[in-house]
Design goal:
The complex is a heterodimer. In chain A, 10% of the residues lie in helices and 45% in strands. Chain A contains 6 helices and 21 strands. In chain A, α2 packs antiparallel against α3. Chain B is of the alpha/beta class. Chain B is built from 11 helices and 10 strands. In chain B, the strands form 2 sheets. Chain B has a 5-stranded mixed beta sheet, with helices on both faces. Chain B has a 5-stranded mixed beta sheet with strand order 7-6-8-5-9. In chain B, α2 packs across α10 and α2 runs antiparallel to α11. Chain B starts with a helix and ends in a 6-residue tail after the last helix. About 5% of the residues of chain B have low confidence. Classes of the chains: A mainly beta, B alpha/beta. At the A-B interface, α1, β1 and α3 of A face α1, α2, β2 and α8 of B.
């Protein structure tokens, strides 16, 4: 009987597999290898190919969808607000459901496992120094209307939650890791491609939106953190594609609640204008002004009223060429009743070698001012506003010890790309407080006497990112933080969980699926 | 043990038996604009002959360069008739194997459903920008210029400075889609794509107003002994292939 079943299964499999293989036209590219030979490489998207070969979609639809890249990309309403990699992937679900071009539907899910030991934050004292291990889940749904038309709408919902694998008492969990069922974006947009025949494009956005500005140091759509900054208000841009653009906005920053619906507060207002110029590849330039008036908390001492002026000059990396980036930002205003004067300086110098794996070596230096003398009527702590950090400091989420405030840090990193979709990276940075008497980031640690010094130590980080395609990617990382003498000070040890002065190891593994 | 051996033998036998014993593989270079119809033709070809088709798409110029640099293509379907001729003259193509597999059709198209009403649209002042592909490099651009010259419109439009030139058909369509031009001359096969069906307004330019836009194919030297390549060329002149090509908006010779 068993034998009979075996033969039936085998013959059925052969009948199914054989004819399929014989009728599968392959599409791809002919690649010239370095040894002088040519090979045919199939470049078809396997899911779209499956839909076509099984008759779920027509051949015409297959080619229409396959060609929707580059200039044929159907641009969602937030395309100019956010970096393209955040919103550009093959819409399998939409294609499979035979939805029209004017309707956008996308789902995204990211699962990560992450763990670190020897926590240092003041709020983790109740955990008595136990390692913190969590599984953060982030799920997004996008529903857009309007396709490439002038009037478009977008809803993006996000659910962020984090499952604890360690004792809840010492775990770091707040609205940077948890924000259940909420509207991340909900806005209407108007696009005009040719303003008064000038060839310029202008866009208006009104509602709730997320955005990236420049290198994302002061405003960014968080991509590693489990929750995301968003804003309620108005955004406008005008520009000439790839050459220059001018943006302006007035918003109330969204206040994230871990379980209730997010909201905004009329006592918190954020506005600004941002200009970008790409005329000269070696001297690309950003210039910006950002204003913040945040009086929503009851404690008047924490009211923030700043003006931030800044600029950025840079050249993008290119094989066989050096590249650089300089950014400087200056804040003036008041924090509570005290004067606020703070600044941020950033420098990158790098070179990309025109060699196999295109190795890139980059040296970094960052300085974010701190408060020299607390209580002297002058606040010098730089406020990073709504910026992202993980791309140049450390991974964020439950890790992320270092903030762009009261910090100076030189460092270097090497990045290699063995294949176009695999990125390997090693980074080393040395960390110091800019001012010994000010807080260390948002850890809650502070030595008002300054006797603990400024040495925060150094960290080494390894990372591997592998994108099977834009719909499926994997991300792995490991970091070791050699803690500096600051953490051996009795004043600091007294504020930390047990063992907080010992070196910390951090590990994460993540998978993201988008359909 | 015997049964396992028998099973493997059967598997190997079946793997080779599902396609004819003489089944071969053919590697084809296809101009990007012809890929969708060619895919359907290739499917029919595989089912009829058992030969296996591999398709590499690209611009005719880049495929032409790859072939000259030794890329192992068996057959080349170009978007023009110049490059196959050059390949034949350069010894990269089999002599006298060139043939015209499709004739491109020129259309004046606008996403505005009320704008294009016929040739009189070109004389009207209802538009400020008209897009064409570069007449010096793109066959459809040359055909657009010839059509406007035949209608004595070309000279009238020059002082108005309304013509904007795309580097290729894709960019020309991009100008029209983005609103940088209200209308333009493109290939009929482009506006027959699913996303444009039933949209906008168009005028199919009579073929006597421009020189035929010949899309030629050639059997390449590397495929001269490949039975699948020869069979594909023969298949292209059959009724199944012709019906598909016409359905995608091309004329046949």
């Amino acid at each position: 009987m068993t034998r009979r079943i075996f033969w039936c299964v085998l013959l059925t499999a052969l009948l199914l597999i054989g004819p399929e293989r014989a009728t599968a036209v392959e599409h791809g590219d002919v690649i010239h290898k370095k040894d002088g030979t040519w090979v045919f490489k199939n470049t078809e998207d396997p899911v779209l190919k499956f839909m076509r070969d099984t008759g779920w979609i027509t051949t015409e639809k297959y080619f229409t969808v396959s060609s929707q890249t580059g200039n044929n990309w159907i641009e969602p309403a937030d395309a100019i607000l956010n970096v393209r990699r955040e919103v550009d992937w093959r819409r399998y679900l939409k294609t499979g459901l035979h939805l029209p071009d004017w309707l956008d539907l996308g789902l995204e899910q990211r699962t990560r496992v992450e763990s670190y030991d020897h926590p240092w934050r003041v709020v983790q004292v109740p955990g008595n120094g136990a390692p913190d291990t969590q599984i953060p889940l982030r799920s997004r749904v996008r529903l857009g209307l309007g396709g490439n038309g002038p009037v478009r709408f977008l809803f993006e919902g996000q659910d962020s939650r984090s499952f604890l694998l360690s004792g809840a008492a010492g775990s770091f969990q707040n609205n940077t890791t948890v924000n259940e069922f909420d509207a991340l974006q909900l806005f209407g947009a108007l696009k005009l491609d040719n303003v008064l025949g000038t060839g310029l494009r202008t866009d208006f956005h009104f509602g709730r939106w997320t955005s990236d500005f420049g290198r994302r140091r002061l405003i960014g759509r968080n991509n590693f953190r489990n929750t995301t900054n968003s804003f309620d208000g108005f955004h406008w841009q005008i520009g000439q594609e790839q050459l220059w653009r001018l943006r302006a906005f007035v918003v109330e920053p969204v206040i994230r609640n871990t379980e209730q619906l997010d909201h905004q507060n009329s006592k918190s207002l954020f506005w600004g204008t941002y200009f970008q110029d790409h005329h000269f590849p070696w001297f690309q330039m950003d210039a910006y002004y950002l204003g913040l008036n945040d009086r929503r908390v009851a404690n008047v001492a924490n009211h923030r009223t700043y003006s931030t002026f800044g600029g950025r000059l840079y050249k993008d990396p290119k094989p066989g060429e050096p590249h650089y980036e300089i950014e400087t930002a200056w804040q003036i205003g008041t924090t509570g009743a005290t004067d606020h004067f703070a600044y941020l300086n950033h420098l990158d110098l790098g070179y990309t070698f025109d060699l196999p794996w295109t190795p890139r070596l980059v040296f970094h230096y960052d300085y974010a001012s701190g408060d020299r003398e607390p209580g002297d009527g002058q606040n010098g702590s730089f406020d990073t506003l709504f910026g992202s950090r993980n791309f140049e400091f450390t991974r964020t989420g439950i890790w992320g010890p270092f903030y762009r405030t009261n910090l100076q840090t030189p460092g270097w990193r090497v990045i290699v790309t063995p294949t176009p979709n695999l990125l390997l990276e090693i980074k080393h940075r040395v960390w110091f407080l800019a001012q010994s008497k000010d807080f260390f980031g948002q850890s809650g640690l502070r030595d008002p006497t300054g006797q603990s010094g400024t040495s925060l130590g150094q960290d080494v980080e390894l990372r591997a990112q592998w994108a099977l395609n834009p719909n499926l990617d994997f991300d792995f990382g490991y970091a070791h933080w050699f803690k500096g003498s600051y953490f051996d000070s009795p004043i600091i040890i007294a504020q930390m969980p047990t063992g907080g002065n010992k070196d910390s190891d951090y590990f994460f593994a993540a998978v993201r699926v988008r359909i | 043990m015997k049964q396992r051996l028998l099973a493997w033998c059967l598997f190997v036998l079946e793997s080779t038996a599902v396609t004819p014993a003489f089944a071969e593989q053919v590697l084809v270079a296809v101009a990007a604009n012809f890929v969708p119809p060619f895919h359907e033709v290739a499917m029919e070809f595989e089912q009829s002959t058992g030969h296996h088709v591999q398709v590499a798409a690209g611009s005719s110029g880049s495929l032409h360069t790859q072939i000259k640099n030794g890329a192992p293509f068996d057959v080349f379907f170009s978007a023009d008739n110049v490059r196959p001729k050059l390949l034949e003259e350069g010894g990269f193509g089999v002599k006298d194997s060139r043939f015209t597999y499709a004739l491109g059709r020129l259309v004046l198209w606008s996403p505005n459903a009320d704008l294009v009403k016929g040739e009189e649209t070109l004389s009207s002042k209802n538009f400020s920008r008209l897009a064409i592909a570069n007449p010096k490099t793109a066959p459809y651009g040359l055909a657009a210029m010839q059509a406007m010259q035949a209608l004595r419109i070309w000279e009238k439009l020059q002082p108005r400075n309304v013509i904007i030139v795309g580097e290729n058909l894709g960019q020309t369509m991009g100008f029209i889609e983005s609103g940088n031009a209200q209308l333009g001359f493109v290939a009929l096969s482009q506006v027959m794509e699913a996303r444009f069906k039933g949209k906008g307004s168009r005028w199919e330019v009579p073929s006597n107003l421009y020189e035929p836009i010949q899309q030629d194919a050639i059997l390449l030297t590397k495929g001269k002994d490949n039975p699948a390549a020869k069979a594909l060329i023969k298949f292209m002149s059959g009724p199944q292939a012709k019906a598909i090509i016409e359905r995608y908006g091309y004329h046949l010779r």
